[in-house]
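User: Sequence recovery, please. Input:
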């Protein structure tokens, strides 16, 4: 299964509602492109960790994914080896400056699209040119993935239905939804207000420190009767600011304390029962209110408003007061001059312009991406599809990279073979073609041998002025000031094309040799000494299969040769950081073809190498669970076939000896492994991997 690596807003160091919003973008992107969602930065919402005098514990703070079912297949990047694949970035601009349109033949010149985009100028899509890429990435420049989906996705009717269905599936986990419903039922009929105090006191450009309780009471009185139950959402119930409000609305409850005082035991029985879970449950309860008013520019308020709309409640989006400063205001923490930049009538924003979308109608200083939510967000399939149905399409669209991609010129090509497939590597530079041929000197299609069929793809480097570019099947995917960097990237693209052509195999980032008793596999990220170990073992009589990429056939129980030319760094007698390692140039080590295995070899042992300066070579057995975790970190094809990979690797670690190798000198390792390898398997492990996975 192809995947999309999605960087959560601020790498997870944000508030609950911001992270929910950000995850929603990833969920819809995953559904539209039919890709596994890989989350980078799926962390605890820091802004919602509140202490309650020891009543609850934050020892194990929740993540959003602990509280909400995403509804699409997903994984955490932390459970994978981030160096095992090279994702292709589709946009480095912040999400709040961007529009994602889909499919890619939607017109960007129509009046409707211009109205939707408003002031934004970054337009993104995933079209046919990216369909072959196994792993896409969307990072928003590294962490700026904050935007409401309502103003981010510009879709046709079919894609809009997909987005609607994906968002319907993204829902509170049943135990939290049921608990919130129980709380709301216990309150009876109630109105709710979210009055953000806490972190707004530390936020630049808001009026928290300038506002008076009488202003809040006046805003509430426009809509609520004082004899009705008022549910107050705040994490500062003890703030003297609320004293006058308590007196004005005697039938009030502070929702967090109401839950803990009346349902504390039931709350503690929930799978997650920390302050983040309490904040999320409070949102769910508030969405069931008869009427609601919130704090402008608060995403916590905005998601309650959206939840209410999704429940079919009338939701005109009411706010206590204006929180958008005038352009010339002096901005300080928690305060600015109280103004009327966004005019309100009884808390409801007053439209100042015309336009087909809600965000067209208000002051342009109100950022549509995050300052407030819009009625376009309500999950009303009929209305959503109706808005999308008439969106214009074009017959064809020039690709973004067509204008700067050079015309193909003849500098030579080299055909790389693996099993019965080939990949063509080409360039307009004969020197680059020679470099590629050296990287794959043992994998070149023999002279005069025609390929068995069409190639799996073409990887090409063009010397495009001072910035060479890399193309895969004619589509530009990278550009660099250094040809060496693109050469390394082209190597990975060749591997990626073969992985895509052979999903039945398990592809490991590993080295491998064939010893007298079978193949020894050395999984590990770069810098672990795999190449050095493999070459030393080959000098001691083993046959070379690979020093970097090892395809495994799980049914046959074999490692298949992938003999790229070994690349090693100069020797060092001390441990180097990853940055120091990367600064050392690699040197190619030519091999005698007679010492290279040409047929698959039965796997007999897995060894995880770990270099430690001055250490005596030693082997320590690993449990199957430990071994599986490390293998998955180094599995390049896991995102293509996760279930089958896990099953096969489980069988492997259960039926083969697996060790961690600590070493300081590769020659000692060779003696250790060759000297102990024969006969080390127990009687229960005599069968090959092929028998284990049948």
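Assistant: Recovered sequence (694 residues):
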């Amino acid at each position: 299964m192809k995947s999309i690596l999605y960087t959560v807003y601020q790498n997870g160091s944000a508030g609950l509602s911001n992270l929910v919003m950000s995850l929603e973008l990833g969920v819809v992107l995953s559904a539209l492109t039919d890709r596994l969602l890989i989350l980078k930065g799926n962390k605890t919402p820091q802004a919602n960790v509140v202490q309650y005098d020891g009543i609850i514990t934050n020892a194990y703070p929740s993540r959003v994914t602990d509280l909400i079912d995403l509804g699409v297949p997903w994984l955490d990047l932390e459970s994978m080896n981030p160096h095992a694949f090279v994702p292709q970035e589709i946009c480095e601009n912040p999400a709040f400056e961007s529009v994602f349109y889909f499919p890619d033949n939607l017109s960007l010149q129509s009046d409707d699209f211009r109205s939707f985009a408003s002031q934004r100028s970054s337009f993104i899509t995933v079209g046919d040119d990216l369909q072959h890429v196994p792993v896409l990435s969307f990072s928003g420049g590294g962490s700026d993935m904050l935007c409401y989906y309502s103003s981010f996705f510009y879709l046709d009717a079919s894609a809009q239905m997909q987005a609607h269905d994906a968002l319907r599936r993204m829902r509170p986990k049943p135990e939290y939804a049921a608990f919130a419903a129980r709380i709301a039922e216990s309150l009876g009929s109630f109105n709710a207000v979210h009055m953000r105090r806490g972190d707004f006191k530390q936020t630049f450009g808001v009026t928290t420190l300038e506002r008076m309780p009488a202003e809040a009471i006046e805003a509430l009185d426009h809509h609520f009767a004082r004899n009705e139950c008022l549910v107050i959402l705040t994490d500062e119930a003890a703030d003297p600011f609320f004293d006058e409000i308590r007196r004005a609305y005697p039938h009030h409850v502070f929702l967090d304390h109401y839950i803990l005082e009346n349902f504390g035991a039931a709350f503690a029985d929930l799978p997650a029962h920390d302050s983040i879970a309490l904040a999320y449950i409070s949102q769910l309860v508030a969405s069931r209110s008869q009427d609601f008013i919130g704090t402008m520019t608060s995403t916590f308020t905005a998601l309650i408003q959206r939840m209410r709309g999704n429940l079919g409640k009338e939701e005109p989006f009411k706010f206590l007061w204006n929180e958008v400063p005038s352009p010339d205001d002096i901005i300080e923490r928690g305060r600015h001059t109280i103004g009327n930049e966004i005019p309100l009538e009884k808390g409801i924003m007053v439209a100042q312009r015309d336009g087909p979308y809600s965000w067209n109608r208000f002051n342009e200083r109100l950022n549509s991406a995050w300052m407030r939510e819009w009625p376009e967000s309500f999950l009303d399939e009929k209305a959503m599809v109706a808005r999308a149905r008439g969106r214009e399409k074009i017959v064809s669209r020039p690709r973004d990279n067509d204008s700067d991609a050079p015309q193909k010129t003849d500098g030579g090509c080299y055909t790389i073979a693996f099993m019965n497939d080939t990949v063509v590597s080409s360039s307009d530079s004969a020197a680059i073609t020679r470099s590629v041929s050296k990287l794959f000197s043992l994998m070149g299609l023999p002279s005069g041998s025609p390929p068995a069929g069409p190639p799996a793809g073409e990887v090409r480097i063009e010397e495009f002025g001072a910035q060479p570019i890399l193309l895969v099947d004619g589509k530009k995917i990278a550009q660099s000031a250094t040809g060496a960097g693109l050469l390394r990237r082209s190597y990975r693209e060749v591997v990626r094309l073969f992985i895509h052509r052979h999903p039945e195999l398990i592809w490991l980032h590993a080295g491998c040799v064939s010893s007298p008793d079978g193949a020894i596999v050395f999984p590990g990220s770069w810098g672990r000494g795999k190449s050095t170990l493999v070459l030393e073992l080959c000098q001691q009589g083993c046959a070379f299969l690979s020093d970097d990429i090892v395809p495994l056939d799980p049914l046959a129980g074999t490692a298949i040769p992938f003999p790229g030319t070994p690349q090693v760094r100069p020797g060092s007698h001390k441990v180097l950081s990853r940055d120091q390692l990367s600064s050392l140039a690699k040197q190619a080590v030519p091999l005698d073809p007679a010492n290279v295995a040409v047929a698959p070899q039965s796997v007999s042992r897995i060894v995880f190498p770990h270099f430690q300066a001055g250490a005596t070579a030693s082997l320590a057995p690993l449990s199957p669970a430990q071994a599986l975790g490390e293998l998955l970190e180094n599995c390049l094809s896991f995102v293509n076939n996760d279930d089958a990979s896990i099953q096969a690797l489980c069988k492997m670690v259960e039926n083969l000896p697996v060790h961690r190798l600590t070493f300081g000198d590769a020659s000692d390792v060779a003696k250790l492994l060759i000297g102990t390898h024969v006969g080390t398997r127990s009687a229960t492990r005599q069968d090959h991997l092929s028998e284990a996975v049948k």
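Confidence is low (pLDDT under 50) at residues 396-409, 572-585, 677-694.
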